[in-house]
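Quick one: structure for this chain?
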Amino acid sequence: MASSTSSPIASSTQPGSNIDYERFLDCVHCGLCTASCPTYLETGNENDSPRGRIYLMRAVVDQRIELTSKVEKHLDLCLDCRACETACPSGVNYGRLIEPFRTSIREKGDWFERWILHWLLPNPKRMRLALAPVRFMQFIGLDGLIRSRLLTSLLPGKKLKQLHAMLPPPQKNIAPLRSYYPAKGKKRATVALFEGCVSDIFFRHTNRATTRVLQENGCDVHIPTGQGCCGAIHYHSGSDQPAINFAKSNCVSFNPDQYDAIIVNVAGCGSMLKDYPHLAAENAALSKSAGFSSETANRFSSKVKDISEFLLELGPRPPEGAIPLTATYHDACHLAHAQQIREAPRKLLEMIPELNLVPLEESEICCGAAGTYNLTEPEMSDRLAKRKLDRIGNTKAQAVFTSNAGCLLQIAKQSRLKRNPLWVAHPIDILDMSYRGLQPSHLTSTTDR
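Got it. Here's what it folds into:
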């Protein structure tokens, strides 16, 4: 057994042996993180809290307990939402513990992880082909049938059923973004837009709204070719090499020297793009063999800005279109906790004339989306989604805004299940409408007009 102040002697195959042991010792087990942990709030089980999971991981590294399926389940149930990092007075970098530990114990993924999470989701072309039959049925008016229990019961496994349930209603077809959009009025900045993969499939209207808002604020907007998935899906599921390949490709596609900022409107993607230096450093051998250096990662990540963060720094032009609506805002975990951005989206919303922004209880508690968590842990994900919808319902808001694709899909899905007439959208969607003098259509998302 190890002492409380030194690292145990562990083999290179020991789970957690790749983690700096001092990181475990940063946690003083005060428990202030428990009130911010979504899974602990739901289960009340200490093993489902951040300090409990740190204790479990350290005990495995110390060889005081075995890594049983029960222990592994407690670790897998973590959303990696990073809310505990915000709450921790000791500055424990929990993400640097749970992510590499789960990577070290992860075996080769099952068919769902290999073919759906890794092969299908990060590739927009494959996604469009896979969704074509479903979209056709929606187009000819069979929405009710494709969402019926009869049809979904034919899908193999809970994960595919959950993936199907997440699909939003079809929207007006929007052409791919052009490579360049000029600034309106006096030019103030030159930026590049990161389109993403899932967001390009389901939220291309938000990408288009983002370009218009940037243009309104004096920005030349470039859409670099060759950009791809940010790599988060692979990285958080233990597939480091594909994540490094995506990172290298994006760093080549976006020459940071050409732009004042690289703009992203998805919190999860933004967090990953800003994390490229850690990806390179923590996988030094793989990165070196791939030709992906820490210097390259740093140059790229230093230019990455969330759209709300960038606009507040630039100084946004006040929108003039009044939108008389009562709305609330949900903090996406990887914006509020990973990037520490909370006030910027709210300040943009508060600029919109006649928009009444009301506070949301437990705004910083995860909605259960957490990347692909809603597919891999559907039961807990649904519990957290219901909790979030209950809090949103208490506000009596007509709309809820959030800055992440996963949150948008998760909250909209739960809203549909509850038959709740709620508009779920990105803050940029309504800001764009205010600039253009438009009003949101009842019970529908913003579409490009």
